C-alpha cells in the first residue's frame, strides 16, 4: 500500500543535541512538507520541497534543516539552535499540482 | 497573509445528531480546500478535498461545501456516532502550501 512512513514514533533528545526525523513516501509525490503541531497553535509549516535538491523555508524554519536528495525521502534535522523543540512533527506529501495532501503518523519529540 | 479560522473550537453532541463545523478564510485566492480528521496522538486522515472550482464534495455521511466568494467552508456530519469523536481540521492550499485552521474538537456522546 502506498503511504508515508515517519520514524521513529517517539524520540527523546538531550538539550544541545541534534536529532533527525525520518520521512519516506512511496506515493510518487513530487512535493513534501514538514509541519510542527503544538497544543493550541495548530499546524505550522517548517520546510517544504517541490523537487529533488530544492527546498524552501516555511513559517518557522529557524533551528531546523532539511535535505531532499531523493524524491522519496525528506528528513528533518532539529538542531540545538531550536529553542523549544518539544512538539509533534508531521510529514506530508502531494503532487505539485495538488490533488490533496497525505500525512504520515507523526513523530513526537521530547527534549529531556 | 492567509488566515484560517474554525468555529467552534470544541463541540459536544449526543449520538445521532446532525452537525455542522465551520471554516473561514481571509483570502479567496485558494487552489483548493481539504478537511482532515485527527485522532489523539495520531497523524491526519484526509476526509474530503474540494477544488476551487467545485461547490461541494460528499463521502458517506460527510458533506463539505465551499463558497470562495464569502471565504467559507462547512463540513456537515449526518447521524453522528461516537466513532466520529476526533479533531477536525480545515486547510486551504495557497502558494503551494497548506494553511491550517486550529481545528474543532468534536465529542459525540453515546
Describe this structure in a few short sentences.
Chain A has 112 residues and is mainly β. Chain A has no helices and eleven strands. In chain A, 0% of the residues lie in helices and 52% in strands.
Notes on the protein architecture:
The complex is a heterodimer of chains A (112) and B (110). Chain A has 112 residues and is mainly β. In chain A, the strands form two sheets. In chain A, strands 2, 4, 5, 6, 9, 10 and 11 form a seven-stranded mixed β-sheet that branches. Chain A has a four-stranded antiparallel β-sheet with strand order 1-3-8-7, with no helix packed on it. The model of chain A has no long low-confidence stretch (mean pLDDT 92). With 110 residues, chain B is mainly beta. Chain B is built from no helices and eleven strands. In chain B, strands 2, 4, 5, 9, 10 and 11 form a six-stranded mixed β-sheet that branches. A five-stranded antiparallel β-sheet of chain B has the order 1-3-8-7-6, with no helix packed on it. Chain B is globular, with a radius of gyration of 13 Å. The model of chain B has no long low-confidence stretch (mean pLDDT 95). Classes of the chains: A mainly beta (112), B mainly beta (110). At the A-B interface, strand 4, strand 5, strand 9 and strand 10 of A face strand 4, strand 5, strand 9 and strand 10 of B.
Query: For the residues shown, what is the average pLDDT of chain B?
Result: 95
Largest sheet of chain A: 7 strands, mixed
Largest interface, with counts of residues having CB < 8 Å to the other chain, equals: A-B, 27 and 22 residues
- The topology string of helices and strands of chain B comes to EEEEEEEEEEE
Mean pLDDT of chain A: 92
Round the Cα radius of gyration of chain A to an integer and report it.
13 Å
What is the alpha-carbon Rg of chain B in Å? 13 Å
Structural class determined from secondary elements of chain B: mainly beta
Strand content of chain A: over 45%
C-alpha geometry of chain B? globular
Proportion of strand residues of chain B = over 45%
